[in-house]
Each structure stands twice: as C-alpha cells, then as structure tokens.
Design a protein that fits this description.
Layout lengths: L14 H4 L2 H17 L3 H17 L3 H25 L6 E8 L2 E6 H27 L2 H9 L3 H29 L7 H25 L17 H22 L5 E2 L5 E2 L3 H15 L15
Antiparallel strand pairs: 1-2, 3-4
Helix pairs in contact: 2-3, 2-5, 2-9, 3-4, 3-5, 3-10, 4-5, 6-7, 7-8, 9-10
C-alpha cells in the first residue's frame, strides 16, 4: 500500500470545497445518477469529462486521476467477465470449449455490453473519487447528525480511523520486509486486523467515558446560502434534470441483445455537452474565484 493511494479531502480554495457539503455532494450524486440511468458510451464519457474538468478546476486533478487508476482494474474485470459468462447475441466471435457442461462462446454483443458495464463502473468510481476529494467529511457528517447521531458518530470514526489503519498496515509491511525471513501477506493482514480490533475497543471505551453514549440530537443551525452554494446546487439540479429528462425522452438508448444497437445523434451529443458544461458552471465567471478562501 502506498501513501495517498485513496483520494482524501484537503481544504482548498475552490467553489466545490467552499460550498456547503450538501451542495457538492448533490453535484456528485447528480453525476452518479447520470451513470445509473444511462448506458450510452458517449454520455458516460461525458460524465468522465465532467468529473475530470471539475476536478482539475477544483485543484484535485491528481486525486481524480488516482480514482481513475483505482477503477481501471475493476472496469477491465467487468468488461472481461461479461462475455465469458453471458454468451447471448447474434454475432459469434469465438467458439469456445465446454467446461462443466457449459459452452463458453464469445459474442460481439456480450463483449460490447461488458465494455459498457466496465465504463459505467469506472465512471461511478471517478465520481466517488471527486466526492471524496471535494466534500468535507466532518461537515457532511454534521448534516446526517441531525437525523441519526449514533450513525453519524460511527461514520465519523470510520472516516478518521481508515487512514490510521492504513498507516498501521504500511508500517507493519515495512517492518516485515526488514526481517531476515519476511512473513506472508496473510500474517501481516492478520496482525493489522488484530490491531484494528484493539484500537476499536480502546476508542469505544474512551467514548463511553466521555459520555458520548448519552448524547442527543443537536439543535439545527441554518446558515445563509453563499454564491458558491447556489452555483454548485444549480449545477447539480441542471445535471440531474437533464439526465432524467433524457432518460424519459429515450435519449441515448442502447439495445445490447440480441443485436447491438445504439442511438447516436444530435440529442446524445447535446446531452453530453450539457453534462460537461453543467459541471463547469460553478467555476464560470469572475465571481467563482471571489471569497473562496476559508478562514
């Protein structure tokens, strides 16, 4: 495990970081919704471009690239498994052998469907990478704290302890390699898990002593919306509305079986352009760079 392998939040001077956590999370949710309701490759590429553009404009391009690298193996795995396990389709590419009474044939339609599924998985993970890099976890948990205090506390501890446990695993792995006969990965993982359980017991005892078990729901405090809150929220509403309206209007329809068919016209291009421009909306104009610094 390398340091900085997973995208993490850091305070930056950008509209996505300055806007309230709910607004930035809504923008990421709108992009994820687009991935969920559309399977067209052009629209999915539009989501990827929107994430990359927003991430670079927000100063988290390296974190988004890291999320893309994390998603690549899983996307390739999905793209390769689908044509091997699902042999439907009219265009046969490879006639495979028989194993355990099942014949493994590869069709063009299954290969294309696997590629689209892998692209969708990669786009999803890049959206969550943008979310992880731009949304303040403490502020986000304060939002959920109004509804469920204990769940928010649990999530807060998880977000704080995951980097600590990652550092513990890194140190144990470094120490193991310094031994004349390094132990196996299973032994290192077992030691890391044991240390995590011990740390969890200590944290639970400390929280109980400090009275967290008797805490109640806090009073809600309403802060006025800033220009960045409004612009990011407007971008989220625009992307979500266009994505749902496009799905209802059958824009970007893809038929995978029995014959692969994909709509490609001005409507799909327009939807893709709106996605990219909608993600760039919070960064447009001179006002986007005013008042972004945090005290």
């Amino acid at each position: 495990m390398r340091r900085g392998f997973v995208p993490v939040y850091r305070v930056r001077d950008s509209p996505l970081h300055t806007a309230r956590a709910g607004a930035t999370a809504a923008l990421c949710a709108a992009l994820a919704l687009t991935c969920a309701v559309h399977a067209h490759p052009l629209i999915l590429l539009g989501v990827v471009l929107a994430v990359v553009g927003a991430g670079c404009a927000a100063g988290v391009g390296a974190e988004v690239a890291r999320a893309a690298r994390l998603s690549l193996p899983l996307a390739l795995l999905v793209a390769l498994i689908n044509p091997l396990l699902y042999a439907e389709g009219e265009t046969l590419l490879v006639r495979g052998g028989t194993f355990l009474g099942r014949r493994f044939d590869v069709t063009l339609e299954a290969l294309a469907a696997g590629g689209l599924a892998g692209l969708r998985v990669g786009a999803f993970l890049m959206v969550f990478g943008l979310f992880s890099a731009c949304v303040d976890p403490d502020e986000m948990l304060r939002v959920f704290r109004r509804f469920s205090y204990r769940s928010a506390l649990t999530a807060s501890l998880a977000t704080r302890l995951v980097p600590v446990l990652a550092r513990d695993a890194l140190r144990m792995s470094d120490a193991a390699r310094c031994r004349p006969e390094p132990p196996g990965r299973l032994a290192v993982a077992r030691a890391t898990l044991s240390g995590a359980l011990d740390r969890a017991v200590d944290v639970a005892a400390a929280l109980e002593v400090r009275g967290y078990s008797a805490a109640g729901r806090p009073r809600s405090a309403h802060a006025p919306w800033s220009r960045h809150d409004l612009s990011v929220a407007a971008s989220a509403v625009l992307i979500a509305t266009v994505a749902v309206a496009g799905r209802v209007a059958a824009v970007g329809d893809v038929v995978e079986y029995p014959a692969f068919e994909m709509a490609l016209g001005p409507a799909e291009v327009a939807l893709t352009v709106v996605l990219v421009l909608g993600a760039a909306l919070p960064f447009a104009g001179h006002a986007a760079r005013l008042g972004v610094a945090r005290a």
